[in-house]
Amino acid sequence: MSITYLEAIREAQARALADDPRVFIYGQDVGAFGGAFKATKNLAQRFPGRVLDSPISEDAMLGLAVGAAIQGMRPIVEMQFADFSTPAFNQIVNQAATLHWRTRVPCPITVRLPSGGTSGSGPFHSQSMEAIYAHYPGLIVMTPATVEDAYSMLLEAVAIDDPVIFCEHKYLYYHLKAERLPTEAMPTGKARIARTGRDMTLVAYSAMVHEALAVAEELATEGTEIEVVDLRSVKPLDTDTVMASVARTGRLLCVGEAFPWGGVTAEVIARVASEGFGLLDAPPQRLNAKDTPVPYHPSLWAAHRPTAGSIAAAARRLLRL
Amino acid sequence: MQRNDCANAFGAGRLPPMGHALFNHNTVEEVSSVRDTYVKAYRVMLLARILDDKFASLYRMGKIHGGVFLGRGQEALSVSVGLALHKGDVFAPLIRDGAGRLAFGEPILDGVRTYLGSALGPMRARDGNIHRGRPRDGLLVMISHLGAMISVVNGALLAHRLKGITGTVGAACIGDGATSTGAFHEAVNQAAVEKLPLVLIVANNHYAYSTPTERQFACRSLLDKAAGYGIEGLAVDGTDLSACLKVVGDAVSQARAGRGPQLVVAELLRLCGHGEHDDASYIDPALRQSLAGRDCLKVAESYLLDNNWADAQALAAWRNEVVQKVEESVAKVQREPGPDPYKEDWCALASKHLSEGHDRSESR
Q1: Please, what are the domains in chain A?
Q2: Which residues of A touch B123 (CB under 8 A)?
Q3: Which residue among A75, A164, A175, B129 sits deepest, i.e. has the most Cβ atoms within 10 Å of its Cβ?
């Protein structure tokens, strides 16, 4: 038996609904239709009255989730695409993210963002929003890269007493498979060493972890050992694991699929440069998508975001510095 | 939080649900009930007005950090909302709902402490002025973005439905300006689709800050919006306490009875600036002279006197009592400590173990 990243997300939601009567799912087309990506397929039938179609009203979807959370529920909101969370931005960053700090009432909501680019999706169905949300106090931002993490981190997101922005990567939905669902999980906020190595630290998250692993495989044939760190969550950001890895390798390359200005890669590099400057044998490097909207055509899209090819080139440059 | 504690402090008993025959009263008991409700509402309005006046005075003395936002002229509408709600209901007041807050049961001290920045207030001085509440008791804490609280009320009501709690309603108060927001549209439509017991109170005070309604919307009446959403709408003279008690009470009863969202549009005028920093010089003098420009507190006083429900002596006694209560509260809070930055945990998360940043910066 094998299970995909998408099926893991569905199974995590099924388990959350089965285990906790406070959980319900709210989003566009999530009911009988089962969601645009079928992440909630059959859940409305299995859990009558708890998987609810919403109007196309992202602001009100999030506002409703906050109100329900205040009353002790644990809503999961599905944004049809991460890109469409922008109309809900106000409710996420001003309502949900500030509630506990202002009132001491927790806001346990999970906002699922189908994130990242797939070929042919264009500027409004491809975005990576993690840095925007990580910028705001009061939010947790998860970026699972594996089937196991998609499952266990989504369950953890529902259990956490704070708003969680769950960035699930659309490219991984069908491509990524595991033999079985995990029975144990790493704690939230802890990064994972996805591959060990001594020559360079390659920090990535979400789909970029797999590009990074491919690069490590390729460069291993050239005698270079790359250590790949999967951040798992970008907030909290496990600086300690990154720093420990850089202490071993002396070189840092951080890769993200999001736009280049600011963001997760800049944050990682800022922390390493300011807190671990003496560990570095070369200037820390970062690689992001280009500073344009995400293009539609496959050939433009492939050149817009980091790929194994562009990451390998950046890694080779860094090794020469 | 004690429900209706301030009103109870005046010796009035628990209110019957609103929406009963306030005007077609025939029996002695009904007349007496109407009078008691009216007197109770008036006394909460008076408290709200005196408290607001005190906040304005403290602001002018430089004793309040940040803005001061008064409900002057909107107390009749506001108190009617607070009184129509029961324990278990949800209330999202706006900036001019001091009266509604008190009627719903917010302690006087919550307002005083939040305005004066006391560490003992419900917001612990992390937020100020009208950004206060007790969400666990149904009193939601507004954010500044207009229209944003309506869907939060929807969520609380949906949660009640999912938990099998019946008979509760939620009230959200907004102004004419908020009807222009996308959040308003999304949330009213959402409530209509889910047939939630939402009572949406629009205080049309003719200006959103300085912007007159003709620059805010082009429909003939805000009430017309109700038909577009497929919900019921009621109009009321927001300067007339009797009318407000009746119409808001009816709207709440209808929502409670399962008739879906109710829109109440009240015509009135804010008899002050947007905040105390604003002299409201833009308000049309003709509007001040119109029916909407009446002071609802004075209208209610005349009504009490005309019906022999109170005499001048009683009005003076009630006022003195309220002034004393307000002065005592302010004096008490002025002796309380402000927040201590060194005792703040500087942690925005409920899950403290997942908070990053503050520990690292502390260790540097």
Answers
A1: 3-178 (3.40.50.970), 192-320 (3.40.50.920)
A2: 102-103
A3: A164
